[in-house]
Amino acid sequence: MTAVHKPLACWVRAADRVGPAPDHTVRFQGRNRDGGAGRGAHGVRWAVRWAARGPVNDGDERADARTLPRFHTGWQRCALPLADGGHALALIEPATGAAVLEIDELGRPLPADPATAEVVAAIERRWPAHRLEPAEAALLRTADPGLRYGLLDRLADEGRPEPECFHVLPWDRVDRLAAQATAALLAAPRRGDDGPADPPVRLRHYLAPAGSRFTAALEQLHAALRVADPVTRRSATTALCERLAGADADRIPDTTRHRLVELLGAIGAADAFLHATAVLAVHRLTGRAPTPTGQAYGSGPAVAPARLRYGRPAAVQNWFVPAAADEPQTAEDEVVREAFTIALTVDSDRGLFVVVTAPLDTASERVLAGGYEEVLLLPIHVTGAEEGTDLYALLTADPDGLAGDLELTALADTEVTVDQSGPPLGLADLPFLDAAAVRTTLACLVRASDRWRWQDLLARLPAGHPVRVAAEGS
User: Fold this and answer.
1) Is residue 291 part of a domain?
2) N or C end: fewer C-beta atoms under 10 angstroms in the chain?
3) Residue 370 shares a structural domain with residue 276
4) Exposed/middle/buried for 392, CB within 10 Å: 0-12, 13-18, 19+?
5) Is the domain of 248 the same as that of 323?
6) Structural domains in the chain (count)
């Protein structure tokens, strides 16, 4: 089978010869750029230097070079020596002598020496490769991060690579940044402390093929710690925990998982409300958590619509036998998710009551005021109710701590369950709430004071915002 060699990067630029390079030779089979015949079965030998010329993607920067028809057949992989030194990943069309350089998102040629280009070519010859040979993986770990990203991004899109293939991505950057964030979280706060002193590590988009987008949250957390921003810090830790709780842990190397587990421990210790989700993420990384249901966390906006499973939910059977007494019969159950206790009560009149409580000590008061801005919403998932499945419990202060409750209608003759379905949310998350879940929540409020508080929160959103519109229609 003839291998198809296509760009790894989204951008390419035409390559032109600009001068001799006596120490380097590019071999390919076919005709040279001037139409001359190649030399024997091994093709012509070009000892020249190259430079990019012309616009990106022939003038269409919005196009993806990986899908351009011109690269569907007839190209060969190589590394071309550059006029300003080094080599770049390239493709040559032997039939015409045309050559293109692969370009990164900054418009620079993608670095790759001849050995790296040959490894890429070998992988392309068995495309889509489901695994990497040990020697290939070892060489790729030393390659340019942008090249590694392009290779795994295309491989994940077009094939089904084994999880170990993703271990060649630049995880050492995640290790360093996670270690810095952990140290900052565990350090005793001092007046005038500006957070981590180490220079920030740029993760960029290089880890995106591994999925879950948790690296963006990690960079956000590190930035928030540097400037002591409690709201951004809380938003970042929430996103980090939820995305790691839904991550494909096998795609993350053991060393990085260990660093992330340490970081999650520090996050959970600093925020009692987030502790249960941090623990769930740890279990996910260590192989002790179930596979998340629905859409993977981190693939949508700040508050993803997927549901996390924290364990066995509170559950009761709505199967009541007729009783002589007029008093309704009840069945109760509860689950404890670290700081949160979620109590479920169902009665024989089909009343379904959910009560969420949490203690409020000095440390939690500080976190609630700073990171959550005095707003604490707990996503919950209910089964066996007429009104719907996804709601938010808005917790408010009472003499015993924090509490919030909802009243629904149980379906007859079925099992009713309730549990936490995601990390607790604060005021900054309000624009990203699920509009349908907000509408369901407003229909299930118990007290007028709860409705007033919800109305006050929703009034902070601009007119026409989907969450506000959904609430106004409830």
Assistant:
1) no
2) N
3) no
4) buried
5) no
6) 3
DSSP 8-class letter at 54: S
- The reply to whether 166 falls in a domain is no
User: Are residues 222 and 368 both part of a single domain?
Assistant: no
Give yes or no: residues 155 and 179 share one domain: no
Task: From residue 131, give the alpha-carbon distance in Å to each of 159, 161, 410.
Answer: 10, 6, 50
Secondary structure of 257-306 in HEC code, one letter for each residue = HHHHHHHHHHHHHHCHHHHHHHHHHHHHHCCCCCCCECCCCCCCCCCCCC
Query: Is 290 within a domain?
Result: no
Helix (H) or strand (E) holding 331: strand 330-337
Residue with tokens 């080599």: 87
CA atoms of 119 and 168, how far apart (whole Å): 13
Domain match, 63 and 203 both: no
Quote the CA–CA distance of 238 and 196 in Å, as a whole number.
20
d(CA 156, CA 262): 28
Domain that holds residue 116: 11-160
Does the residue 348 lie in any domain? yes
Distance CA 178, CA 236 (A): 13
* 219 lies in the same domain as 324: no
Residue 171 to residue 148: CA distance in whole angstroms: 11
pTM for this entry: 0.88
Do 331 and 341 contact (CB within 8 A), yes or no? no
Q: Are residues 360 and 397 in the same domain?
A: yes
Q: What is the pLDDT along the chain (474 residues), one digit of tens a residue?
A: 457 899 999 999 999 998 765 444 455 444 444 433 333 223 434 468 999 999 999 888 899 999 999 998 999 999 999 998 999 999 999 999 999 999 998 899 999 999 999 999 999 999 999 999 999 999 999 999 999 999 999 999 999 999 999 999 999 999 999 999 999 999 855 444 555 567 778 999 999 999 878 999 999 999 999 999 999 999 999 999 999 999 999 999 999 999 999 999 999 999 999 999 999 999 999 987 655 544 443 333 334 447 899 999 999 998 876 665 567 789 999 999 999 999 999 999 999 999 999 999 999 999 999 999 999 999 999 999 999 999 999 999 988 999 999 999 999 889 999 999 999 999 999 999 999 999 999 999 999 999 999 999 999 999 999 999 988 876
Six token digits for residue 431? 């624009």
330 and 463 assigned to the same domain: yes
* 22 three-state secondary structure: coil
DSSP at 386: S
